[in-house]
Amino acid sequence: MTTKYLWIGSVALVAALGLSLGCERTTQEDVSDAQQAVQEEQQETAEARQEAQETIAEADTEARREAAENVRQEEQDTVEAQKELQETKQEFNRDEYVASVERRLEETDRRIEDLQKQADNARDAEREALERHIENIQEQRDIVQNRLDELESAEAEDWQRLKADVDSALAQLQKTESGV
Question: What does the DSSP 8-state code read for residue 21?
Fold first, then answer.
């Protein structure tokens, strides 16, 4: 459509040029020159159109590359956020577990105090049995505490493995306490 207007414009330019030079007759050569001018303009238009399409294609390629990079970065950020969330959950669960074991150890400490009061008021044989029992409980309590300390200092992802050791020590402490 643009080419049609260019051609009409070129013919009109040639006609106007012919009229402005006087009433000279338009020759076949004038028409040929006008047609040549139109063809040159059409060629320049085609080249400009091709160049514009190439520029658009390059811009599209660059925009797609940038968009892909942005998506890749956002995906990486999401993975890191999920990992951080998982670590935070692990730390929370570990801290909750540690708090429950510490409460259990406090109960054991009160039990030891009660047994020590009984031992203080007991006779010789009974006192010796209570003191041995207190000593056994204290040893097992110390084992639980040591394993709990290891668990507390472990990385968030490793604490579950160490939890089994603490649970085992707690079970042994329970058996030792109920030995009286």
Answer: T
Determine what percent of the chain is predicted with pLDDT higher than 70.
86
Tokens of 148: 């709990």
Name which of 1, 5, 11, 3 is nearest 44 in CA terms: 3
What is the C-alpha to C-alpha distance for residues 66 and 64, in angstroms, rounded to an integer?
5
Contact 166, 148 (CB under 8 A): yes
DSSP per-residue string spanning 90-158: HHHHHHHHHHHHHHHHHHHHHHHHHHHHHHHHS-HHHHHHHHHHHHHHHHHHHHHHHHHHHHHHS-GGG
Give the tens place of pLDDT for each residue, 78-135: 999 999 999 889 889 999 999 999 999 999 999 999 999 999 999 999 999 999 999 9
Tokens 């207007």 correspond to: 5
Close Cβ partners of 168 (under 8 Å, ≥ 6 residues apart): none
Instruction: Please answer whether residues 147 and 169 qualify as being in contact, where contact means their C-beta atoms are separated by less than 8 angstroms.
Output: yes
Question: Within a 13 Å sphere around the CA of 37, how many CA atoms are in the beta-carbon half?
Answer: 15
Specify whether the CB–CB gap between 177 and 114 falls below 8 A. no
Backbone angles phi, psi at 68, to 5 degrees: -65, -40
> What pTM was computed for the model?
0.62
